[in-house]
Here is the input.
Amino acid sequence: MRKLKVTELNRLTPEAFKESKKIPMVVVLDHIRSLNNVGSVFRTSDAFRVEAVYLCGITACPPHAEIHKTALGAEDSVEWKYFKDTPEAVDNLKQKGYTICAIEQVEGSIMLDNLLLDKEKKYAVIMGNEVKGVQQNVVDKCDMCIEIPQYGTKHSLNVSVTTGIIIWDFFKQLSD
Here is the structure.
């Protein structure tokens, strides 16, 4: 086997990406502290053609060198918006017809391996702060909460890892 060169990967240009069909999904970052996590979310969102990333509260916005370090330019291809407060972003998405999903451990959460998405719907997934998770007042506005099953001693995953798992699962279910 031979490793492929970057020129052999046939990736989209940023302009072609902006015109391409996206999966009906918006990722909402609820007070994410780490700029590396923000950059990673942009890069994964680019890889799987997520519609947009909504940055809320203390979450940093591009352009920023620390975001660029992990996003590697995906912050320029993926559409994004900033909201001072996450409930405002959720209300905006609800008005646009999105099903709102917090990625959080709550009573009655749906385990990711049991989640069945409807290709006719649009989804917004809310990723919580690295320490506090998704704010309770945001969880209260959600249509559902999704949890990733875990089988070790820790009760959570890094937010960028969690986002990658969620985006991949949504991509598999929602892409044509």
Remarks:
- The chain has a mean pLDDT of 97.
- The CA atoms of residues 122 and 147 lie 19 Å apart.
- Helices lie at 14-19, 35-47, 65-71, 74-77, 86-95, 136-139, 159-174.
- The chain has one domain: 21-174.
